[in-house]
Amino acid sequence: MGVLKRYGTKLPITGKTPSVNLEEGSTPLVRLDRIGETLGVELWAKLEGCNPSGSFKDRGMVLAVAKALEDGAKALVCASTGNTSASAAAYAAHVGLPCYVLLPSGKVALGKLAQALIYGAKVIAIDGNFDKALEMAREAAEERSFAMVNSVNPYRLIAQKTGAWEICESLGRAPDIHAIPVGNACNISAYWAGYKEFKEWGQIPSLPKMMGFQAEGAAPLVTNEPCPNPETIATAIRIGNPVSAELARKAVRESGGQFNSVTDDEILKAQLMLAKDGGIFAEPASCATLAGLIKLKAAGKLPEGATAVMILTGNGLKDPDTALSQAGRPIKIGSTLKELLEALV
Ligand code: F0G
């Protein structure tokens, strides 16, 4: 029914807020028994790639765009590693606003680029990384009085909490472990805020440990210093100076959780495992969660029998190049049954 309808009473919506709805949210929470058995936990995956633009961004974007309309914004602007731009462009198209997106040139997965373009956003590829693009987008938004829809926009974080509420409603409690990829650190901060609120409201008895996973080449929250030249195959989280770093640190500290990094190789192995042993195709950044849980297990830091939820933030189809680089190739044959039978081994 859309995030604004399902959770409207818990969100800052007024009589003047236009209803915007692409049927985002209410994403599946899938139990993964085969992988869970390997890890010795009850494992669940929240399929945020099932949102209308294929990533978790739609939850926060719907409120940010509704509020931009309410405030009479003339256009939306954002910087992005790909998913925010796809989401902003989709909602801008849906409500009929112009949208400008700044991307790090050559570092955005193919599907995400195609999305921003087909939804009709003006796509500007800058000679710099996401952190630089964000700085430029903020300045431009101020100059032109456009609505800035990155997670510096408070409505993004507020509506993003709905992910935590859905998990608690599905499980009837919070998980013991919440595993999430961390880039600009908005999502982990919002989930923690959402869980805490549900506990305050008496909906859940306990809180999860927040386990944030970054890519080794872009891990400022693990090394505790900004990373000037972030690099990883998981381009969605190729971020060196997270905007919500302080909130994320607080979430991890308060929950008794941890930040950890995983290598690109571990991310790719986890992507393959999720697909082959789980039937789920998630983009590389999302797979940092499974890679991280595998790492914790190997270090003896994953409690046996715990309930763990992984936030699979984006759909695997967004980055076909990376998937094809490790997924093998079709077997080519002619058109005879003999050849086919030989191939069926
Ligand atoms: N996973 C995916 C698929 C993402 O696209 C992002 C962020 C993250 C995880 C990290 O979330 O930033 O809240 O810590 N993507 C942003 C973008 C930066 O521009 O699409 P975060």
Please tell me about this protein's structure.
The chain is of the alpha/beta class. The chain is 44% helix and 14% strand. The chain has helices at residues 3-6, 33-39, 57-70, 83-95, 110-118, 130-144, 154-160, 162-171, 186-200, 220-223, 245-255, 264-278, 284-298, 320-326, 337-343, and strands spanning 29-31, 42-47, 76-79, 99-104, 122-126, 147-148, 177-181, 209-215, 258-262, 307-312. Strands 1-2-10-7-8-9 form a six-stranded mixed sheet, sandwiched between helices. A four-stranded parallel sheet has the order 5-4-3-6, with helices on both faces. Helix 5 (110-118) links the parallel strand 4 (99-104) and strand 5. The radius of gyration is 20 Å and the shape is globular. It starts with a helix and ends with a helix. Bound molecules: ligand F0G. Ligand F0G binds at residues 55, 57, 80-84, 181-187, 236-237, 283, 285-286, 313-314. Ligand F0G is lined by residues 55, 57, 80-84, 181-187, 236-237, 283, 285-286, 313-314.
> How are the strands of the biggest sheet laid out side by side?
1-2-10-7-8-9
Helix content range of the residues, please? 40-55%
Query: What bound compounds does this protein have?
Result: ligand F0G
Helix segment tally:
15
Strand content: 5-15%
Nearest-integer average pLDDT: 97
In total, how many beta strands? Answer: 10
Secondary-structure element string: HEHEHEHEHEHEHHEHEHHEHHEHH
Distance between the termini: 45 Å
Query: C-alpha Rg, in Å?
Result: 20 Å
- What's the shape? globular
Largest sheet: 6 strands, mixed
The low-confidence runs, each spanning 5 or more residues with pLDDT under 50, are: none
Q: How is the quaternary structure best described?
A: single chain
- Could you say which structural class the secondary elements and strand pairing correspond to? alpha/beta
